[in-house]
Amino acid sequence: MEIRRLDPDSVAAILPDRDPWGHKGNYGKILLLCGSRGYTGAAALSAMGALRTGAGLVFLGVPESIYAIEAMKLNEPVVFPLPDEEGKLSEIAIAEIIDRLSRMDAVLIGCGLGQSQGTMAVLRAVLETAECPVVVDADGINLLAQNISLLRERTAPTILTPHDGEFARLGGILTEDRMTSAREFAKQTGCVLLLKGHRTCISDGEVCYENSTGNPGMAVGGSGDVLAGMIVSLLGQGIAPLEAAACGAWLHGAAGDLCASQLGQYGMLPTDMLNVLPRLLK
Question: Do residues 198 and 249 touch, judged by C-beta distance below 8 A?
Fold first, then answer.
């Protein structure tokens, strides 16, 4: 089994150069379907994670009932309301989502999404329709666990970002050798799997990356939302799925390490990681 490790030089070699003649349309058009009543922070953090990692245009679709909150929180993403039911996306939202999908370079679904018949229908529509890469995180993973065939039948790239509990719900078999567990699941399902934890494991079923950055101060709600936004941003900028996931994990951990050195592990927050990301992406 080939296990690769990243460092600042190898990450810099993977990241695309910024074209001096480029414009916002050149750096990825990203669609995020995130958030629900009570989980407005997840949507905001994922959107800012995408922007702080270089995405040119970020479109954030949220339930109509939380649209005003998100619009007040965020200036840079394009926030738009979608039909909802009891604070979560409704099946009625699918028509508008599908209309937008064809113009996107990458999609993220799941951060703070909530679980309902409506969000299950939205996830199914995205996975069956999107021809661009899709990142599935958090509640998107929990919904996918109810119908794993959606993953196996998908032909375009898909990245899953579970922690150990979500991985088990997906049907993954977690052993002491977490890298082998990640690789086998990726091989069986055709996805790129990023298995979160100490020494995060990333695999497409063949090549594996083990992440060496990060610290326990990152174990706080919202940290994973930032990571998901970072990965979809890198995908939208044209980085291959496996490398996008691996670079996202390395940069996320490096941002956490920088925060820990400045603030200490007890008090650091996901918003602090967002604020230091530009120092890692000069």
Answer: no
